[in-house]
């Protein structure tokens, strides 16, 4: 129940994502305080039963378990720099969670989420798709927001994806961006192209650097990841078959195997399912393969 875990619980409570929330933290006083604080607002939100404990058994019987535990990213530190400590956490924690909730979908939000997801998946014998990461769902939301701002339209009119690593090697899929049904390269305002090469490059860079700017300013990213994680939870609990760019261990899409990264994936009650291979520009495909290689090198260095 650090800044991210608390934000996720708060987002789920406000959105009515679940009928019950169980909070776990090794700090008993902290988790009790968060349970009280959330329960005190119960009059103003959809009904939700909230409990919490420093005993991991509080998670027993969960449909979805969200893992945010781990070392926190510091200013100037990349997500991959966090890898060793958080991989060890995932390898030891995931079996315990599934022991208490054998049918649960386990969703990792801990960074570096792709490396942690890969390690957690390999540490257990879970059903296919039942262990996955939040991936680039938030990055894609940042991408859509910046495009909408540039187009001077509501973000709901924009469709676009970030794929690959949730980190510095991620890929902006400009070739498939749609703004009110208009491809980005054809979108004009007063006859002038809005998304020229320079603008596209700036927006892609801002997406990659967004977390660094927020961490430098307030110490952590938490509010938007809380909302985006709640959205993933709803796709699972509602069996929505929603296509989201979550991080899973790849098994052949675009010729990529043996590494966890984000691609458009059908999320349902069974967790992360079919990966959709959207058409990619040559530069995007090469970038995705470089992103996979970057992650694979880190896995090898950690012996995962």
UniProtKB/TrEMBL annotation:
Q: Which residues form the Lactate/malate dehydrogenase C-terminal domain?
A: 136-297
Q: Write out the GO MF terms.
A: L-lactate dehydrogenase (NAD+) activity
Give the family per the record: Belongs to the LDH/MDH superfamily. LDH family.
PROSITE patterns xref list: L_LDH (PS00064)
**What are its E.C. numbers?**
1.1.1.27
Which pathway is recorded for this entry? Fermentation; pyruvate fermentation to lactate; (S)-lactate from pyruvate: step 1/1
What catalytic activity does the UniProt entry give for this protein?
(S)-lactate + NAD(+) = pyruvate + NADH + H(+)
Q: Would you tell me the protein name for this molecule?
A: L-lactate dehydrogenase
Q: Does the keyword Signal apply?
A: no
> One GO BP annotation here?
lactate metabolic process
Query: Which domain of life does the protein's organism represent?
Result: Bacteria
Q: Does the keyword Lipid metabolism apply?
A: no
Q: Which Pfam families does this chain map to?
A: Ldh_1_C, Ldh_1_N
* Residue span(s) of domain Lactate/malate dehydrogenase N-terminal: 2-133
Against Gene3D superfamilies, the record matches this protein to: Lactate dehydrogenase/glycoside hydrolase, family 4, C-terminal (3.90.110.10), NAD(P)-binding Rossmann-like Domain (3.40.50.720)
Q: Which GO terms describe its cellular component?
A: cytoplasm
Q: Where does NAD(+) bind?
A: 25, 86, 109-111
Active site positions, chain numbering? 166 (proton acceptor)
Keyword annotations from UniProtKB, A to Z? NAD, Oxidoreductase
């Amino acid at each position: 129940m650090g800044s991210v875990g608390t934000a996720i619980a708060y987002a789920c409570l406000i959105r009515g994502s679940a009928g019950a929330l169980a909070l776990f933290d090794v700090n008993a006083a902290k988790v009790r305080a968060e349970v009280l604080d959330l329960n005190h607002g119960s009059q103003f939100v959809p009904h939700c039963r909230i409990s919490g404990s420093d005993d991991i058994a509080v998670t027993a019987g969960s449909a979805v378990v969200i893992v945010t535990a781990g070392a926190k990213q510091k200013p100037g530190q990349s997500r991959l720099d966090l890898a060793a400590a958080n991989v060890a956490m995932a390898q030891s924690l995931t079996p315990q969670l599934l022991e208490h909730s054998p049918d649960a979908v386990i969703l990792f939000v801990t960074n570096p989420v792709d490396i942690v997801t890969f390690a957690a998946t390999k540490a257990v014998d879970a059903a296919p798709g039942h262990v996955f990461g939040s991936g680039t769902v938030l990055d894609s939301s940042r991408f859509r927001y910046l495009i909408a701002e540039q187009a001077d339209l509501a973000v709901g009119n924009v469709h676009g994806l970030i794929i690959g690593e949730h980190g510095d090697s991620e890929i902006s899929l400009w070739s498939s961006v749609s703004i009110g049904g208009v491809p980005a390269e054809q979108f004009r305002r007063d006859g002038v192209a809005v998304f020229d090469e320079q603008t596209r490059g700036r927006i892609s860079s801002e997406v990659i650097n967004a977390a660094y700017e927020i961490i430098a300013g307030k110490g952590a990213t938490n509010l938007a990841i809380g909302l985006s994680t709640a959205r993933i939870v709803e796709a699972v609990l509602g069996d929505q078959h929603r296509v989201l760019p979550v991080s899973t261990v790849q098994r052949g899409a675009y010729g990529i195997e043996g590494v966890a990264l984000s691609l458009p994936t059908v999320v349902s009650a069974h967790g992360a399912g079919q990966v959709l291979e959207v058409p990619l520009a040559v530069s995007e495909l090469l970038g995705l393969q470089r992103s996979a290689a970057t992650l694979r090198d880190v896995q090898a260095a950690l012996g995962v």
